[in-house]
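Researcher: Please generate the 3D structure of the following complex. Treat every line as part of one assembly.
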Amino acid sequence: MAYDQLYLSHQFCFPLYAASKAVTRQYIPLLKETGLTYTQYIAMLALYEHGSMDVQDLGKILYLDSGTLSPLLKKLEAAGYIEKTRGEDARFVTVEVTEKGFELREKLSKIPSSVACCIPLKKEEAIAMIEGCKKILEALE
Amino acid sequence: MAYDQLYLSHQFCFPLYAASKAVTRQYIPLLKETGLTYTQYIAMLALYEHGSMDVQDLGKILYLDSGTLSPLLKKLEAAGYIEKTRGEDARFVTVEVTEKGFELREKLSKIPSSVACCIPLKKEEAIAMIEGCKKILEALE
DNA sequence: TTCATATAAATTGCATACAATCTAATTGGC
DNA sequence: GCCAATTAGATTGTATGCAATTTATATGAA
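Model: Done. Output below.
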């Protein structure tokens, strides 16, 4: 067929796009009791792991820009999980996890295993996929 | 460390989420001249490949619900690429590609190869990732 | 010093995603 | 035939994503 290359099943992008959404959806019910969304969850993970940082650095870690992060951080601040402070150079905003934010970590720590057990992949398969994703990110970002 | 399992780098979800967004972003400049978004693009591909169908079947193929598809199809219809008609059972809406929609296919047919050449994976790696994604979709949908 | 340039974050505008609800139409039990 | 239960799609509300613009601040060359 002349338009073979347009078959959804021949596209690399589509399974990735659909699977990513499917995995993300698994988090929604688990995060419900914390009131966090998936994006807010990964933002908290980045802050736990790397400590305080400015919005730009957080954006580099999460591959998100200020258009996404600004309103998201405002919500996390309103919920009391983070604090934002202008630095000496007042252009920068430092984001810091609060006491309440660290308390949240206990609840969040149970989530990864709940999701992992729904993913029907062997360890090597999962590792291969993660490596593939990392190669893509290095090449495209 | 007590919270190892919360490291972003230990999460399966995050590389998948970030890589999927990175790949999708590659389409944006390529689709710009057609006026389509990425989601509109995959909707057109599904319709080219499977022919006319109702909204529900399209949603099953794309893993999208009517909340996403209704406004999206409205835009594709306004652009003249599809037509929506109520069937004999007036609850169903049949979506059909128009003449103009089929003309668009020529332009779209050049896009997959442009994206593919930016993906730094060997053929076997890409196939393994697609297989992994399909397993996830089967398990979670 | 002064003002053009550059930079970080916030805001704006548009298009998803998706849960929840609503509306219109159909079907099934009686 | 009548009406409760179902079903398909549309709508509503909230939260991203991201490009483009704006705002506030800092820097650097004349």
